Structure formats: structure tokens, C-alpha cells
Amino acid sequence: MSEADDRTREMSRESRAPRRPAVQASRLWAGGVATAVIAGLIALVGFLIVRVLLQIPYLAPIQANAIGGWDAAVQLAIVAAIAGLAATGLAQVLLLAVPSPMAYFGWIAGLLTALATVYPLAFSTESVTVRIATAVIHLVIGMAIISLVTTTVTSASNTRA
Q1: Main-chain phi, psi angles of 64, to 5 degrees
Q2: Residue 37 burial class via C-beta count within 10 angstroms: exposed 0-12, middle 13-18, buried 19 and up
Q3: d(C-alpha 91, C-alpha 28), whole Å
Q4: What is the pLDDT of residues 112-142, one digit of tens each?
Q5: pTM
């Protein structure tokens, strides 16, 4: 056999091997931290919109000249930030473990967002307006996390070291 035949066989073996894009973990996690901050801020802004602009007694009864319920709002912001970090971790695990990782990420994160959106509508004992406000805030947080983590993965995958 000729040297060209050997090279052709080697090239065909290389093309059959699945190629995974190299992901810069530092860029991925920097984006994950930024996602967490944004998710937490969305929770706080959502709280303010519902409480101050819409005058819905979200997370605590409305008191005269005061914004009550800040403890619950901060807890929601912390949970949203943790969800952003968890989504980044999920994306990294999927990048290492499964084919078409972002398709799986989209399904998992989308279904978790749907669960977080529907849960207060189905199981809360609050008024309908509070349940709807909670569902909308959860939906916006989930959509932001999905879009930001997806964008971060794409950016961290396309950069050259």
C-alpha cells in the first residue's frame, strides 16, 4: 500500500470520531455567574413591579408607606441566582456527557421552567392575582436563564485558546 492510502484511512477514521467543541470553563462560569446575578435582579425587579406598580400583595401584605416582604423577595432572588448557577453546571455536564448537549439542555431547562411556572398556579393558596404574578416572575427568570446560558455556552465554545 502507498503512503497516500494510509493517510486516507487515517483521515476517514478521524472524521468518524465525534468531535466535541472545546469549551473554555472560565468563560462558561463567568457567564454563569453573570446569569446568576441577572436572574436575582429579575426576581427583585419583578417583586418591585408587582408590589409598587401593580399594588398586588406579593410575598407579604401591603402596608401603608412601606414595602414589606423584602425577606421573601431576597430569598426569591437567591433561589433565582442558584438556579442560574445550577443551569450552568447542568450545561457543562451535558457538554461532557451527551450528544447534542444544548438540545437536552433546552428540554430540561424548559421543562423545569414550565414546572416553576405552573406550580404556583396549581398548588398555591394565595389569591389568583398573586399566583399569576408568581408564575410570570418564574417564567421570566427561567427564560432569561435559558437564553443566557445557551448564549454563554455558544460563546465559550467558539473562542480559540
Answers
A1: -65, 130
A2: middle
A3: 9
A4: 999 999 999 999 888 898 899 999 999 999 9
A5: 0.80
**Cα angle 124, 126, 129; round to 5:** 110
* 129 CB-side CA count, 13 A: 8
State the alpha helices, DSSP H only, in 49-69.
none
Q: Cell numbers at residue 139, please? A: 417564567
Which one has a higher pLDDT value, 108 or 63?
A: 108
- Are the C-beta atoms of 146 and 87 separated by less than 8 Å? yes
Q: What are phi and psi of 107, to 5 degrees?
A: -65, -45
Q: Average pLDDT in the 16-35 region? A: 81
How many helices (H) does the chain have, and how many strands (E)? 5, 0
Residue-level length of the chain: 161
* 96: phi then psi, degrees, rounded to nearest 5: -85, -25
